[in-house]
Amino acid sequence: MMLQRCLDDGPDFLSEEDRGLRAINVDLQTDAALQVDISDALSERDKVKFTVHTKSSLPNFKQNEFSVVRQHEEFIWLHDSFVENEDYAGYIIPPAPPRPDFDASREKLQKLGEGEGSMTKEEFTKMKQELEAEYLAIFKKTVAMHEVFLCRVAAHPILRKDLNFHVFLEYNQDLSVRGKNKKEKLEDFFKNMVKSADGVIVSGVKDVDDFFEHERTFLVEYHNRVKDASAKSDKMTRSHKNVADDYNRIGSSLYTLGTQDSTEIFQLYCHIPLFYFSQQKIEARVSADEDLKLSDLLKYYLRESQAAKDLLYRRSRSLVDYENANKALDKARAKNKDVLQAETTQQLCCQKFEKISESAKQELIDFKTRRVAAFRKNLVELAELELKHAKVTGIYFCFHFRQLLFHRIIEVGLEGTL
Amino acid sequence: MAAEREPPPLGDARQPDLEELEDGEDLFTSTVSTLESSPSSPEPASLPAEDISTNSNGPKPAEIILEDDREDLFAEATEEVSLDSPEREPILSPEPTPAITPVTPTTLVAPRMESKSIAAPVIFDRSREEIEEEANGDVFDIEINVSDPEKVGDGMNAYMAYRVTTKTALPMFNKNEFSVKRRFSDFLGLHSKLATKYMHVGYIVPPAPEKSIVGMTKVKVGKEDSSSTEFVEKRRAALERYLQRTVKHPTLLQDPDLRQFLESSELPRAVNTQALSGAGILRMVNKAADAVNKMTIKMNESDAWFEEKQQQFENLDQQLRKLHASVEALVCHRKELSANTAAFAKSAAMLGNSEDHTALSRALSQLAEVEEKIDQLHQEQAFADFYMFSELLGDYIRLIAAVKGVFDHRMKCWQKWQDAQVTLQKKREAEAKLQLANKPDKLQQAKDEIKEWETKVQQGERDFEQISKTIRKEVGRFERERVRDFKTVIVKYLESLVQTQQQLIKYWEAFLPEAKAIA
């Protein structure tokens, strides 16, 4: 039924718990000057509409509290406007949220609908519920990702003042930013290729500053390893889910076996493991959820580390430009031609480079702080939840064991383990 | 197992225990409440007198086992003895029947309280172990181990030889402990002989493990990888279970072929077991013919018990197959999970290495370690899932096929009897015709033939009754064995679950402070 509501034009409310998703990835300070969140979201056939809610005491805005509806493309437009803005070259641009992708989930639901005739009513209902829950989970996640982006911008001392950002928050009409068409996407592709090639050349230049040299080495390696870890974590999640499903199936089989059997004791021996299997199923699901959270964290830092790398690239680029400008100035002075122009260019390059270096240093330090905090929070939560569940399961198992022993159903051999 | 049960005190000393049982809280409200009957008030209805007679389903051991050990013993012991006496004698000490005959089944059963006081002093004359054995059903003093798989020969003619060790105190064997070397086809040969001898009279002969051309070829070719060692181990365990099941059967244990298999150092090679041999092809043809026959025989089932049981076995077969498939899927996914967890652990360790914040780096390395340990646990659990559950289910699916086979034999027996009757009728008609036609010489022949067929009809009827009786007993035995086997496996499985759980707790508990220490 959740699915229906998702697919209809009805509202969908996000609980407090879901807002917490934001905190997992980024430990941000929110202050009264500007608070942004996504208060509501609606999933239609092929797009998601986010209700962006702002609370601000800044004089820039007409009201203190207001909301607008935005779609994914508008977020991307905002992100790209930051990237293209030369003034922000010295900052880590918060990574753009990934596109909402319900294709896989929708496909599964469709397959389920087609296969309805071949399974029992209960199986069908159960599977439908599970797929709906999955859909809902993906939905919540995409909302969280979009919210994190906005919060990062709002928390950044410089970016929060950006005019485009204010327009994004306040302008209650459609921003008319359509998604990129094929030609533009192709242009982007080439741009990226050029950038990577350039990046290779530029990264060959050894940095005079130890701090940046270290950061570059670190980020390149870190980025690759985070990518790897996130992929492996995904695989683990899938495996855990498969195991959970298997336990589910075994549980149902045992149940049928037990209820149909004539021997009562056999019934009992089917019902006992049933409890354990359902508990195991729950545990496997919890593990899958935790793996997923870890995956999400890793993926987020994959994107952020890329943004940090981009910053370093921009700095290197400006360093190269500065050095080139120096050479040009020397040449001009030697030839005594266009010296003023060369001087101006050189000065601009110098200023740009120094400005970027200064802010980049702070940005990278902040990045580290954020990263460490986010990982800490996630790892602590992971351990606490796994522990809690393992204990619950353990107590559950032991308790049942005692019961069974008490009723003299199982032989004495197990007393040693309790 | 017998030693662990303390002899229950007679009479009133028991009562407090029963009350404890009643008052104790239990979580199994749905299952236990249905099975729990108030122990202090006897329920004659639960053990109707007819249960003890040979025509019944067999009693319900379930309710009894749940309630009181002592009642368990008595109820089972009585029905065991009354049904089995002829076969039992050579194996157990010849005391049983006299102990029971003074007390008729009905009085023993009806008011349970009375049965305790009447039967108790009488049965307690026999040794405790014997009663235990009977109550548990078919526990004989013989232990079989299959071990030391050894490759003999090279290339496509190579085979695996297994050591079969027997430890026994039974008088029919020459020694107390002995071992022989056997190959897989020897086991198949044994099964084939036993099946030919016993299945058509209604005994459920445990089936031998399946052939596997793929598996064996790998071994022959000499691939020393984990899958072929796994295959050999799987086969060894299956062979062991096969022999253990076979020797548990009181009738089969008596068989000379079995004894020869266990004892003699040299065994004639069972060539007829090869799939592509002449005998193999003949077997296939016979199987096909049987299948066709089965479809055409429409038996007039006079006994509802058989119809019911056949249906039950069909259901059980289906359910077990489904369960087996699910368990195999679980084993497969667990292995995958294990591999993925190991890969993630390595990846997390790498990430930890590159992380330049010391505490976080350490925490990530710790996470990697925890995940690695958990991977180990997953592997062990997969092992448990596999060997305990999956193999047992496979065995039972094959066993049920044997049970179905036995039911089919009964049908064939019935058919034979019916055919004899039809032939007899024809002969009688022929005789009547000859009488009218007045041909004295042929008449005598006809009369002789009638006599012959009358005997055959009688024999047919006797055979049919005998096989029916044997099947009932065998099915009862099968059900008990099934319960016992599943109980053992489930208990072991649950044990492993508990241990895994405890380990998991330890690992995460150790990791948590590391995570919290990230400053």
Automatic annotation (TrEMBL), chain A:
Q: Which residues cross the membrane?
A: none
Q: Does the keyword Amino-acid biosynthesis apply?
A: no
Superkingdom of source: Eukaryota
For the PX domain, which residue ranges apply? 28-175
According to its UniProt entry, the protein's GO biological process terms are: protein transport; retrograde transport, endosome to Golgi
InterPro entries per record? AH/BAR_dom_sf, PX_dom, PX_dom_sf, PX_SNX6, SNX5/SNX6/SNX32, Vps5_C
Is the keyword Transport assigned to this protein?
Answer: yes
State the CDD domains in the record.
PX_SNX6
Keywords assigned by UniProt, alphabetized: Protein transport, Transport
Q: Which Pfam families match?
A: PX, Vps5
| GO MF annotation list | phosphatidylinositol binding
A GO cellular component term found in this entry reads: cytosol
Q: Fetch the PANTHER family from UniProt.
A: SORTING NEXIN FAMILY MEMBER (PTHR45850), SORTING NEXIN-6 (PTHR45850:SF4)
State the similarity comment: Belongs to the sorting nexin family.
Q: What function is annotated for this protein?
A: Involved in several stages of intracellular trafficking.
Q: What is this protein called?
A: Sorting nexin
Gene source species: Crocodylus porosus
TrEMBL record, chain B:
Pfam families, alphabetized: PX, Sorting_nexin, Vps5
Q: Where in the cell is it found?
A: Cell projection, Lamellipodium; Early endosome membrane
Record keyword Protein transport present: yes
UniProt-listed GO biological process terms: early endosome to Golgi transport; intracellular protein transport; lamellipodium morphogenesis
Low complexity composition-biased segments: 27-50
Domain PX positions:
140-269
Q: Which UniProt keywords apply?
A: Acetylation, Cell projection, Coiled coil, Endosome, Lipid-binding, Membrane, Phosphoprotein, Protein transport, Transport
Q: How does it sit in the membrane?
A: Peripheral membrane protein
Q: Per its record, what are the GO molecular function terms?
A: epidermal growth factor receptor binding; insulin receptor binding; leptin receptor binding; phosphatidylinositol binding; protein heterodimerization activity; protein homodimerization activity; transferrin receptor binding
Per its database record, what is this protein's job? Involved in several stages of intracellular trafficking. Interacts with membranes containing phosphatidylinositol 3-phosphate (PtdIns(3P)) or phosphatidylinositol 3,5-bisphosphate (PtdIns(3,5)P2). Acts in part as component of the retromer membrane-deforming SNX-BAR subcomplex. The SNX-BAR retromer mediates retrograde transport of cargo proteins from endosomes to the trans-Golgi network (TGN) and is involved in endosome-to-plasma membrane transport for cargo protein recycling.
Q: Which family does it belong to?
A: Belongs to the sorting nexin family.
Name of the protein: Sorting nexin-2
Source organism per UniProt: Crocodylus porosus
Read off the lineage from the record: Eukaryota, Metazoa, Chordata, Craniata, Vertebrata
> Its encoding gene is what?
SNX2
